[in-house]
């Protein structure tokens, strides 16, 4: 799993080279043509030579606390994010120097635990792999939640700005925007934050430590999605108000309905940048499905309960209109799924 995740595992031990070689081979750390670097050989390397050599060595034997510290520093000089595990007092300096010091909770000494950033309570290396998987999943959920919220807000902003610049009546009122931000976007965003970890999360290389959250890809996707939602919403409003000559309240209702449906359905598309909703499974995040279903029910209540119609300053649409603009709300989802499929298919080719 570590190899697939782009994590290089290095074994550093004070044992005899033959013992270290046997254990390293059994664990899959040491390859057939790899050699074990012994402590006295490491002493002959200066810091510059060690920085060049360290990437080719996976197993060290007969090492001291000073050797461990030098190995960690050499990896950090190469720009790597270094996690160091240990249980003895002699491991403490290297744990302190590492990017992430990991102490053993059962066999580890108190000195080691004090020097560490994290303690493994079961002394199991698999727990570290599980922590990496969980950490990547949390980061992914932060990104997908922010993308979902910001692209929706971008779409609303474009709708209002374009209408003002063209001299149109406002397609959405303040209460409409408040409802969309708090209910339509808010609850699905909470469900996305608890989305299950992607099945391929350990098949991806680590992101660069200096990579920004709001990177070029994030901004492109946010703007593309926002423009897509705004285009559909403005098109529906223009059709109802200018072409069909319906009342402003009906046109606003149509725009509001389309935007709400587009936002709710887009939550499913936001779950993964690579997999479509059919590949992920519609019910694999049950919280999200339930939130979207309840939000749809609330939208229907706004349409057909007179009190809500007065509150939202809209006029009811016919069932044909209703189904038509709900269908229009599917357009962003379909386009995003096609974009996702084309990018994934292109990678496969």
Q: Any idea what the shape is?
A: elongated
What's the CATH architecture name of the largest domain? Up-down Bundle
Instruction: Give the DSSP E fraction (strand runs of 2 or more residues).
Output: 5-15%
Assembly classification: single chain
Within the CATH hierarchy, at the fold level, what is the topology of the largest domain? Calcium-transporting ATPase, transmembrane domain
- Biggest sheet strand line-up: 1-3-2
Order of SSEs: EHEHHEHEHEHEHHHHHHHHHH
Radius of gyration, in angstroms, nearest whole number: 28 Å
Terminal CA distance reads 25 Å
Q: Averaged pLDDT, please?
A: 91
Helicity level, as a percent range? 55-70%
What does this structure look like?
The longest helix has 41 residues, at 125-165. The protein is mainly α and 349 residues long. The chain is built from 16 helices and 6 strands. Helix 6 links the parallel strand 5 and strand 6. Helix 11 (248-269) packs across helix 15 (319-328). The model has no long low-confidence stretch (mean pLDDT 91). The chain folds into 2 domains: 11-127, 3-Layer(aba) Sandwich (Rossmann fold); 135-348, Calcium-transporting ATPase, transmembrane domain, CATH 1.20.1110.
Outline of the structure:
The protein is mainly alpha-helical. The chain has helices spanning 17-27, 39-43, 47-53, 65-77, 92-97, 110-115, 125-165, 174-184, 186-193, 216-243, 248-269, 277-280, 286-304, 306-312, 319-328, 330-348, and strands at 11-12, 37-38, 59-61, 83-86, 100-104, 118-120.
């Amino acid at each position: 799993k570590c190899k697939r995740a782009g994590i290089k595992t290095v074994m550093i031990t004070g044992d005899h080279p033959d013992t270290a070689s046997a254990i390293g081979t059994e664990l899959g750390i040491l390859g057939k043509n790899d050699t074990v670097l012994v402590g006295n050989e490491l002493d002959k390397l200066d810091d510059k030579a060690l920085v060049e050599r360290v990437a080719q060595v996976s197993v060290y034997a007969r090492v001291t606390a000073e050797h461990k510290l030098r190995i960690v520093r050499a990896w950090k000089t190469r720009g790597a994010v270094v996690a160091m595990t240990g249980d003895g007092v002699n491991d403490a300096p290297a744990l302190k120097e590492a990017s992430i010091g990991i102490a053993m909770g059962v066999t580890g000494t108190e000195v080691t635990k004090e020097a560490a950033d994290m303690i493994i309570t079961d002394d199991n290396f698999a727990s570290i792999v599980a922590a990496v998987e969980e950490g990547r999943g949390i980061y992914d959920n932060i990104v997908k939640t922010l993308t979902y919220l910001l692209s929706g807000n971008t779409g609303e902003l474009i709708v209002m700005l374009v209408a003002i610049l063209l001299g149109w009546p406002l397609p959405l009122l303040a209460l409409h925007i408040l409802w969309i931000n708090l209910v339509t976007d808010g609850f699905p965003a909470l469900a996305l934050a608890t989305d299950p970890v992607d099945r391929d999360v350990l098949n991806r290389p680590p992101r660069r430590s200096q990579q920004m959250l709001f990177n070029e890809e994030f901004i492109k996707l946010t703007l593309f999605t926002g423009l897509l939602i705004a285009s559909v919403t403005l098109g529906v409003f223009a059709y109802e108000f200018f072409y069909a000559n319906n009342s402003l309240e009906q046109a606003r209702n149509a725009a509001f309905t389309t935007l709400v449906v587009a936002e709710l359905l887009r939550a499913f598309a936001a779950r993964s940048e690579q997999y479509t909703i059919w590949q992920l499974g519609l019910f694999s995040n049950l919280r999200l499905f339930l939130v979207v279903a309840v939000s749809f029910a609330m939208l229907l209540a706004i349409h057909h309960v007179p009190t809500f119609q007065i509150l939202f300053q809209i006029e009811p649409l016919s069932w044909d209109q209703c189904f038509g603009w709900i269908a229009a709300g599917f357009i962003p989802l379909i386009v995003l799924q096609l974009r996702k499929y084309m990018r994934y298919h292109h990678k496969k080719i």
